[in-house]
Amino acid sequence: MKREAFNKYLKTADKDWYKRRLTAGMFCVMAAFTVLSVRLFYLQVIEGEEYRRLSENNCIRLQNIDAPRGLVFDRNGKLLVDNRPSFDLSIVIKDAGSVKETLEKLSRYVGIPEQELTAKIEAGRDVPAYKPVLLKQDIDRDTLAAVEVHKFDLPGVVVDTRLRRQYVQRESGAHVTGYIGEINTDEIKSGKYPEFRVGDMVGKFGVEKASESHLRGKRGGRQVEVNAKGQVVRVLKTVDSEPGQNIYLTIDQSLQKKAESLIESVPGAVAAMDPDTGQILAMASSPSFDPNMFVNGMSREEWDLLVSNPFRPMENKAIQAEYPPASTYKIVTAIAGLEERVIDENTTFYCPGYYVYGDRIFRCWKKTGHGSVNVVKALAVSCDVFFYQVGQKLGVDRLARYAKSCGLGDLTNVDLDHEAKGLIPTSAWKKRAIGVAWQGGETLSVAIGQGYNLTTPLQMLVLTAAVANGGNICTPLILKSVETADGKTVYDNERQLINRLPAGKRTLDIVKRGLWEVVNGRSGTARIAHADGIEISGKTGTAQVVSRKKNDNRYKKNEAAHLKPHAWFVAYAKSKHSQIAVAVIVEHGEHGSGTAAPIARELIKSYMRGGTDSEYVSKNTQYNGFETGN
């Protein structure tokens, strides 16, 4: 009985032992399956996309197809900005095998120092291994041939064909066309360029920036199969890019070159406009620069020379530089005086060569004086004393109201970026900006375009054009039309009127008579601008850079060039039924009559006659015995 009970106990104990072992084994198997399942879930679900991408990039890759940027033409269809093919040398680290060995061979084959290639690799260390690292842009044909011949010996080395911007006219029109450059981080973050990536090119200045939305196209791409060395075996799928739209400017390139040739030896600006439409016919700023430098790349030394040039070649002086308008502002003073009826066409003031105000003496540019003058003669001979007294009667605030209504001290809204506003002072402005009350004597300086007055050449051009066309202030236009790549017009820019001059027909007729006398009258200050067969009307100006004081030795004839006055001339032709308006500023050119007026004359003759070889008249000359004036 005891034995049977013992055997029964042993059998029960064996069953429990096996049961425990089986349970433990099942636990281990379940744990292993759990770990495996979790790992598979992690690899396939959480990291699945990344591993799928890495796997596909072993044999299938996506390549960008850059969209051709739109072309730029002048108003007559002359090509200004083009695209040319270029070849960029890159390396895909993942496909390069021994990178050091590949770079050694590449250096030997193409003549690029190995240290330079290694530096490019180091600079691009954040680029994923399966993406190309740029080694050298725009390689020449010999380098391309060397790479192609040894391509099986250079794993991972690829040559991409890209379209590179080419500014056909080089320095000519550079401030208008502008240039492109690589998009920066701030521009990407701004949200203005949602489809752009690091490395893309974008308009930085001029028309390239202002018309970016028209010029840029839509990128395409292709799916390619590559071998172990990263070389393309076949193209699987292609999505073509969409080219940008072509744009036509209002600029007449022939007239543009003429303007540039007239001002190339001096710093300054020339701008010409169709008075009826507001279309800019020419806009030259001197000195200029070659925008191809920004596309092809420049050295640090070249960049330093460009930005340190005291004549500011990177500045579009026609819209960005601000100058005292000098005697060209007398157009505004005359309009204000006539409209406010502080003078009429018969009002005369006597000019002995100076005007006493308080305890100060304000001198006229002509020491011996002009005698008795009315508003027409005052404009013709640019009599300071006459306009001192008109300004005194008006006061600074009334004068400023008319100046602003004439478009001064505000943006013209030309379709270019970085336009300056200029400055038209008021008594409230001075109190706010400087903290000092306005003084009556300051009004006299403002009335002849000095003092705190600042304008741009384009603002003075718009004013001159408005006088010429009978009072319509037009928005100056640079963009004429936009076409698709296949020639379909999608946009036509039409005249946009901002406002009208604050002057009635009678006032304008009087002012225009005075401007005609400036060039065509016996005592006009710009008789040098007279052209046979073309009636030109205009106004000279001499803008002081610093205040001239009596017996100041700095202002002798040998004074430093940077202390000499700026020379102004604004004009239009013909005097009736005008076809062109011109504004010229020559920095430190002294008298507008001797320096700026001949430039305007030659430009007008070139436009009206279709070209001229007339001799340029140098500054500070005598014209038929008449002294050049301001």
How many beta-strand segments? 23
Task: State Rg.
Answer: 37 Å
User: Span from first to last CA?
Assistant: 144 Å
CATH superfamily of the largest domain: DD-peptidase/beta-lactamase superfamily
Largest beta-sheet details: 7 strands, mixed
CATH topology of the largest domain, by name, is Beta-lactamase
Describe the structure.
- The chain has 3 domains: 2-46; 61-249, Penicillin-binding protein 2a (Domain 2) (Alpha-Beta Complex); 253-288 and 316-545 and 558-609, Beta-lactamase (3-Layer(aba) Sandwich), CATH 3.40.710.
- By secondary structure, the chain is an alpha+beta fold.
- The longest helix has 45 residues, at 2-46.
- The chain contains 21 helices and 23 strands.
- Strand 14 (354-357) and strand 15 form a beta hairpin.
- Residues 547-558 and 612-627 have low confidence and may be disordered.
- The chain is elongated, with a radius of gyration of 37 Å.
- The strands form 7 sheets. Strands 2, 3, 4, 5, 10, 18 and 19 form a 7-stranded mixed β-sheet that branches. The protein has a 5-stranded antiparallel β-sheet with strand order 12-11-23-22-21, with helices on both faces. Strands 1-8-9 form a 3-stranded antiparallel β-sheet, with no helix packed on it.
What descriptive keywords fit this protein?
Beta-lactamase, Penicillin-binding protein 2a (Domain 2), alpha+beta, 630 residues, 7-stranded mixed sheet
